[in-house]
Amino acid sequence: MTDLAPAIILVRPQLGENIGKAARAMLNFGLTDMRLVSPRDGWPNPDAGPAASGADMLLDQAKVFETVEEAIADCRLVFATTVRERGMAKSVATPREAAAQIRHKIQNGERSAYLFGPERSGLANDDVALADQILTVPVNPEFASLNLAQAVIIAAYEFSQTIDATPAYQPAFPEGQASKDSLLGMINHLEVELDKRGYFKSEDRRAHQQRMIRNMVTSASPSEQEVQSWRGIIKSLARPPKET
């Protein structure tokens, strides 16, 4: 499978055996880029190996990050897997539609990722705000309970089915979306300048306002050129006005 196959990012996973089962599910369909964000019990975890049932290679090569921002920095398209309504203005895709979009990114030489949250609580709103779209599996609404490995294997299976398919998705920006590293750099730049000018007046509302800014920017899926243009605009607005 291509080196640009999507990364599976487990955010704050709790049990080593669930990490192992997720690795097994990934390798069933040829995915090998496992990334762990702040695993609760540290890494490596002795409980992961037996549950991986032979997918030890993935566990040995798994990359560990402290934050979601670091884990997605090299990705152009990120899907946050969740079944809960988040009250965010984000597009929602099925695993099949997400796989088609990821395949298109690969053809453009760009990397994508799926975010999976902790087993007990799922992704936090701050995690979801960093994603481009929400991925929801169309399960029985009266029993929408999937464990971590089940969710991973559904995403991996649907991606595997796109190998010979012609993608239906047509991107808004032929030149490609900006990397998350570039996008988050622009967001941080904007937040710094807004803070200097007193935009975040209430500390109680700061986190909510920052989340809204990140959600608005990531949902727009700007291109690299647009991000650079916005950086220039922010710099220009931050300069003192010229005397006339």
TrEMBL record:
Gene3D superfamilies membership: 1.10.8.590, 3.40.1280.10
Keywords noted in UniProt: Methyltransferase, S-adenosyl-L-methionine, Transferase
InterPro entries per UniProt: Alpha/beta_knot_MTases (IPR029028), RNA_MeTrfase_TrmJ/LasT (IPR004384), SpoU_MeTrfase (IPR001537), tRNA_m1G_MTases_N (IPR029026)
UniProt key word Methyltransferase: yes
Lineage top rank: taxon: Bacteria
Name of the protein in its database record: RNA methyltransferase
One Gene Ontology biological process: tRNA nucleoside ribose methylation
Keyword Ligase assigned: no
Record organism: Temperatibacter marinus
Pfam families, per the entry: SpoU_methylase
